[in-house]
Amino acid sequence: MTTPFRHLFTFVSSTPCACRPTRQFRQAARCFSSSPVVKSGHSKWASIKHDKGKADAAKSKQRAILTKDIANAVRIGGHDPTMNPRLTLTISTAKKNAVPKAAIEAAIARGRGLSATGAALENVTLEAMLPPSVAVVIEAQAESKNRILAELRMLIKDAGGNVTPVGYMFEKKGRIRFEKKEGVGADEVLEPALEAGALDVMEDEEGGVVIYTDPAQTVSAGTAVAKETGLQIAESEIFFDPNEDTLVPLDKKAAAVNIGKFLDLLAEVTGVQGVYLNWTKGAIEEELWAELQSKQEV
């Protein structure tokens, strides 16, 4: 707070009359001390910008999930919506969530292994190590293999990681998720799944049946089980499953947050199909771990 001014008076002699001098007052002001105005450390614009950034990130994440669903629906049932009810549903959901027409068309093309221009896409796999010694495998499809590799390498470098072989820490498997159906669980699916070549059968958190297969048998096993049980395939994919003895616990929040930022940037790279890490929760908070897992799924 600025100190109030204190008024001082100085005497100035004047002699209008030679017989009787008079004194005239002249007022002066002096500021003994002052201090700068203290402003609030909060900025309304910064808060608005922060909130907008979070909203944009959420929209980007949702769009990535919806376009991935479209591409997956195409791989399972074909690119013609009139012959593929699941594709019709995913396109409708995307439109309701304001996904641009161009993004929907690109997702349909990607499901067919094509770019938006109709050119064949190249499959790209990149392996790397991120702090704190977390192995990551990234799968992508792109028109220009060199361009996307350069972009991914830059993101890994900025995250403090380095490109290096880590594939031996994972096992490649096929995974088919079926839509939930009352009265049909893992026990009912076990026998036909094993006959179709499944390696394992389980139920997810929502009660849907999930079977694991060798990569080469993913399509045939999924089709056979669906035909035998009447279940509808929700998702079919080939993924990298980390080996149990290589899992790295996330014990430090800073390292976990750094990986989260890396996954956010990775989600913005067009053509990324999957990201797999040999991590486990460790000592970080449950909420942060759930957030990281949701980012990996994108």
Describe the protein's architecture and organization.
Belongs to the TACO1 family. Its main location: mitochondrion. The chain is an alpha+beta fold and 298 residues long. Among the domains are: 121-179 and 232-298, Alpha-Beta Plaits, CATH 3.30.70.980; 180-231, no CATH class. It has helices at residues 44-77, 85-96, 101-111, 145-158, 186-195, 218-229, 253-267, 286-297; strands spanning 6-14, 22-30, 122-130, 134-142, 162-163, 170-178, 198-203, 209-213, 233-242, 248-249, 272-277, 279-280. The strands form 4 sheets. The chain has a 4-stranded antiparallel sheet, covered by helices on one side. The chain has a 4-stranded antiparallel sheet with strand order 7-8-6-9. A hairpin with a 5-residue loop joins strand 7 and strand 8 (209-213). The two termini are 53 Å apart.
Determine the number of helices (DSSP H or I, runs of at least 4 residues). Answer: 8
Order of helices and strands: EEHHHEEHEEHEEHEEHEEH
Largest sheet: 4 strands, antiparallel
* Distance, first to last CA: 53 Å
CATH topology of the domain at 121-179 and 232-298: Alpha-Beta Plaits
Strand order of the largest sheet: 5-3-4-11
Which percent band covers the strand fraction? Answer: 25-35%
Pairing-aware structural class of the strands and helices?
alpha+beta
In CATH, what is the class of the domain at 121-179 and 232-298?
A: Alpha Beta
Question: Rough shape?
Answer: globular
Total strands: 12
> Which runs of at least 5 residues are low in confidence (pLDDT < 50)?
5-14, 25-33
Q: Fraction of residues in helices?
A: 40-55%
- Under CATH, the homologous superfamily of the domain at 121-179 and 232-298 reads YebC, transcriptional regulation domain
In round numbers, the mean pLDDT is 83
Pfam families: TACO1_YebC_N (PF20772), Transcrip_reg (PF01709)
Domain TACO1/YebC-like N-terminal: 43-113
Domain TACO1/YebC-like second and third: 122-279
Subcellular location: Mitochondrion
